[in-house]
Design goal:
Elements: E1 2-8, E2 11-18, H1 22-32, E3 37-42, H2 46-57, E4 65-68, H3 77-89, E5 97-102, H4 104-116, E6 122-127, H5 130-136, E7 141-144, E8 153-156, E9 161-165, H6 174-191, H7 193-201, H8 203-207, H9 211-231, H10 246-255, H11 262-279, H12 285-297, H13 309-315, E10 329-334, E11 337-342, H14 346-356
Parallel strand pairs: 2-9, 3-4, 3-5, 5-6, 6-9
Antiparallel strand pairs: 1-2, 7-8, 10-11
The structure holds nicotinamide-adenine-dinucleotide.
Nicotinamide-adenine-dinucleotide binds near residues 128, 151 and 171.
Length: about 350
């Protein structure tokens, strides 16, 4: 089991990562000494949420459970409203807390409801997907989708504690597990060469969901994210590095009308970004090849997605992080180090995309 403290300007919080760590979960909630608490989960994760409720009950805290429908379509203002109504019915007051048990969807909705209920109550994140463990439960971005735009409505609201029990990944569908490795490889290429080496060495154990290997990987990813969040809680500068692979990735996702999963799209986006960096002499060929091999080794496809180039190109300037249509790309320089803020000539983007989609 590992424990770390994430420091941000708006407060610090513990993250515990390990297997079968009920005791830590109980301790984390008991330390908050909440007057009342409520769990938010989705119907696929309900069995785990019930276990969490039993664990917490032993700390003397009763936790009624609100269940949302699984999937991205639930990430709506309506669903957040239902959570708020539930918190009101359960009389969760300002000294109470919200416990999110689920993947990034549940974490984002419950975190957002927690951020605005009573102008903010404490939120404990209990991530149950690999993506939520390495990414969404950390950093304090919460929110729901607008009618047409993803994550358009939200708040920065740091959790009070994060407890990631790796044993819960056993039931995660293979696709969701594999997809999360796109983000893991992202941290490795953009920020952490040691993680890259670890991914090479422990591939088989990781694909078999070995908890010991997973503990190291989740820890390294959380550390990488924590470092940038500590410097830039509200995404005004350095946090942009986390967007590596997401410029072309988001464009592909949108151009495919979300038929292509986020992880697969980000993997494609990283392949594109590295090739752009190579053609601008910002990195060497070995980086492109090592990253390709790593993505393929973790089951992220190297076949070109079947999406028209014009649609992908049109979606790039709509990137949320673009300013007045100017896109700032994150470019890898060497394994473990990327740089945000690069302007890329349109002709290079077009040339690389044409090849990547051929
Ligand atoms: N806030 C952030 O910083 C941040 C960062 C990255 C992604 N996100 C958001 O996260 C969301 C995606 O999160 P996700 O990939 O975790 O998807 P998800 O939460 O939708 O979960 C994927 C599926 O797995 C199921 N599931 C979850 N845990 C399970 C388990 N242990 N066993 C069996 N089934 C389980 C869920 O019910 C769901 O059907 C997106 O909405 C994205 O925008 C947020």
């Amino acid at each position: 089991m590992v424990r770390l403290i994430i420091e941000t300007p708006s407060g610090s919080y513990p993250v515990v990562i390990g297997s079968n760590i009920n005791r830590e979960l109980r301790g984390a909630v008991a330390r908050l000494d909440p007057t009342s608490a409520a769990i938010v989960t989705d119907s696929n994760v309900l069995p785990l949420a019930k276990k969490v409720a039993r664990t917490i009950k032993r700390a003397g805290v009763k936790t009624p459970i609100h269940v949302i429908r699984p999937g991205e379509r639930s990430k709506s203002l309506g669903a957040a409203g239902d959570v708020l109504n539930f918190l009101e019915r359960q009389k969760v007051d300002r000294a109470g807390c919200v416990i999110a048990v689920g993947g990034g969807t549940v974490g984002d909705i419950a975190g957002f409801a927690g951020a605005i209920w009573q102008r903010g109550v404490r939120v404990v994140q209990v991530p149950t997907t690999l993506l939520a463990m390495v990414d969404s439960s950390i950093g304090g971005k919460t929110g729901v989708n607008g009618l047409r735009s993803k994550n358009a409505i939200g708040a920065f609201w740091q959790p009070t504690a994060v407890v990631a029990d790796l044993a819960w990944l056993e039931t995660l569908p293979p696709l969701s597990y594999r997809d999360a490795f796109a983000e893991v490889v992202k941290y490795a290429v953009a920020m952490d060469h040691g993680l890259f080496e670890l991914l090479l060495k422990a591939r088989e154990r990781l694909l078999e969901r070995d908890p010991v290997a997973l503990e190291r990987v989740v820890f390294q990813c959380v550390m990488a994210k924590a470092l940038v969040v500590a410097k830039d809680e509200r995404e005004r500068g350095p946090r942009a590095i986390l967007n590596y692979g997401h410029t072309a990735g988001h464009a592909l996702e949108a151009a495919s009308r979300f038929r292509i999963s986020h992880g697969r799209a980000v993997a494609f986006g990283m392949r594109v970004a590295a090739r752009i960096a190579l053609s601008m002499d910002l990195c060497g060929k070995r980086l492109v090849e090592s990253q390709d091999a790593m993505l393929t080794a973790y089951g992220l496809p190297d076949r070109p997605p079947r999406v028209g180039m014009a649609r992908v190109l049109a979606a790039i300037p709509r990137d949320k992080k673009a300013r007045r249509g100017k896109v700032a790309w994150v470019m890898p320089r060497r394994l473990g180090h990327a740089e945000p803020g690069h302007a890329v000539p349109a002709a290079i983007v077009r040339r690389v995309l044409r090849k990547a989609l051929a």
